[in-house]
Every structure is written in structure tokens, then in C-alpha cells.
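User: Okay, second chain of the day. Same drill as before: sequence in, C-alpha cells out.
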Amino acid sequence: MFLETLKEIANRLGDIHCVLLMGMDGLPVEQVIHDESFNTEALTAEFTTVVKVTNASIREVEAGAVEEILILSEKMILLTKTITSDYFLLLILPADGNLGRARFELKKAKYMLEKEFV
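Assistant: Same drill. C-alpha cells below.
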């Protein structure tokens, strides 16, 4: 189920570096990598720290749960969508990727996947 969902996202978006179902421990549960030269392992390890710090900061100021994190850089777009407090989707696109479509696809996937974690 998890891998199928990730493959569907990747197929619908086309031009992506990777899409992963991640645990807050920094380990991918499932992943689809389209760009093998992309250092997915290092990026996911570092980015999980960003997700944890952001979640802690949001809790500290009582702003509710983090739904999405978006980082736009010169070379890439990183987008997360929270599924549960322990799992999130991470999508990495080229800098010129279709952000609107990516957000839509992750939102659909969240609703499909969160049923599996209940």
C-alpha cells in the first residue's frame, strides 16, 4: 500500500527527485527515487531534524499541529505533509517543479495513508 501510493505520486508528478514515507526517527519506511545521483540519504537525515525542531517550536507556542513544511531553495523544493505525529511524507522536486500539483498530491496521499496508521 505505501509503495503503491508513493509510485502513484511520482507518476502523476513526473519530474521529481524522490518521494518518501518517513518516520520521525529519520528512517524511510518506503521510498521512490527518480534521481539516483541525488544524495537522498544525507538529505533525509538532515531534514528530519528540521521537521522535529519545527514540530517542537510549534508546540511551544501552542500553534497546533504542523500540517506541512515547505522549503524553497535555489536547487530544489522540499515539501512535507504530516500523516501522524510519527510519520510524514517527504517530496523533493527540482526548483522548477510544480509545487501546486505536488501539494495536492501529498494532501490526497495523506488521507489515503493515515487510515493505515490507525
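The mean pLDDT is 93.

User: Thanks, on to the next one.
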